[in-house]
User: Fold Acyl-CoA dehydrogenase from Sinosporangium siamense.
Amino acid sequence: MDLRDSPKEARFRARLCAWLKENLPTDPEPTVLAERWPYMREFQQRLYRSGWVALSYPKEVGGQGLGPMEEAILSEELGKANAPSLLPLGHLGRPLLSYGTDEQRRRYLPPLLASDEIWCQGFSEPQAGSDLASLRTRAVREGDEWVLNGHKIWTSYAAFADFCLLLARTDPDAVRHRGISAFIVPLSTPGVTVRPIVLANGDEEFAEIFLDDVRIPEANMLGRPADGWRIAMDVVNYERGAVETGYLPKFERYLSELAAVVKTQTSTPDRAILRALGEAAAALEVLRMHCLRTLSDRVSGAPPGPESSIDKLLMTAVEQKLMALSLSLLTDTTAPGRAEWFDRYLYGRAGSIYGGSAQIQRNILAERLLGLPRSPG
Ligand SMILES: Cc1cc2nc3c(=O)[nH]c(=O)nc-3n(C[C@H](O)[C@H](O)[C@H](O)COP(=O)(O)OP(=O)(O)OC[C@H]3O[C@@H](n4cnc5c(N)ncnc54)[C@H](O)[C@@H]3O)c2cc1C
Assistant:
């Protein structure tokens, strides 16, 4: 793969950089989620209005009809400019694009891409996380409606969301993953209760969703009955990928900030700290190379598949190495930015759980990429 921009990509990058120079917020990103959410949303809406979001979505649903290279340039330049984070649920547009009817795409995609309507992902349940196929939320057909009953948990940003892409069991007699369907559930429907969960840092980032005789129209099924598993796997493959998420420039910035702390804190740095810095830098380089390989797959038209578990594992490894280093460096309670680093450290712990735990990613790689036998049971 040629890593240099083509003339067209170089023009795109230059236009974007000029836009960012004029339009980046001057006030800092709030640390408390209740304030950060409207700040991120406002910036993302501004980006969208200027044509910088949904680059690889078709024009007829509000996208720009461009490709993965432009998506990668966008996330790289946003990261380099230290722009506000993007709302983290954009990948939920993908299943609407692939499985939605024309009517569903027209109705839901433009406001989703414009961040005028917010979506969340209702997959996990109290007894169904890693073993998602055992989910128990039920959807029963009554006339031209579906009636939903059940309980979702760890639903990110549900308290801010208008719609939930929700998995429910429609055929209890089918083999576990074959009896699941996907639904578009407006969270304002009677019978839906969203109860926020408070994180260690005080943010209410995710929530439980209770569904008590929630009636939604028949037309709110996404795909056909029993497509739920396929849809869920497509969603997580997008969610686990690194290319569009802008992790690389963010991690590069963290690394250079930590290296600067080492330089200012001690005249002769501890060898163990230098080694940890070196290991984090090497892991970051491996991630960068892997991202380029993934990008090259996207450019050649291959959709994300089980190999996105590699991206997820590498990203988590880099983040957790950097955060462990930050904790050992920022022992000085008066160090500037310490609270922010502690927040990042705590969130870094979640990296090996959300989007499927690290152990589950390794199982996927073993079984689906390496062809190793499945463990019994
Ligand atoms: C920050 C965050 C955001 C999240 N956002 C969402 C969201 O928006 N929507 C949503 O639906 N869910 C969300 N989740 C939930 C997430 O998908 C689950 O937490 C995750 O899949 C693990 O499920 P669990 O918590 O039930 O743990 P469990 O499945 O109970 O796993 C517990 C431990 O056992 C291990 N384990 C389980 N099975 C195996 C196995 N077969 N082999 C080896 N080890 C195994 C796991 O790796 C883990 O270490 C979020 C989670 C976090 C932390």
Notes: The domain at 241-369 is CATH 1.20.140.10 (Butyryl-CoA Dehydrogenase, subunit A; domain 3).
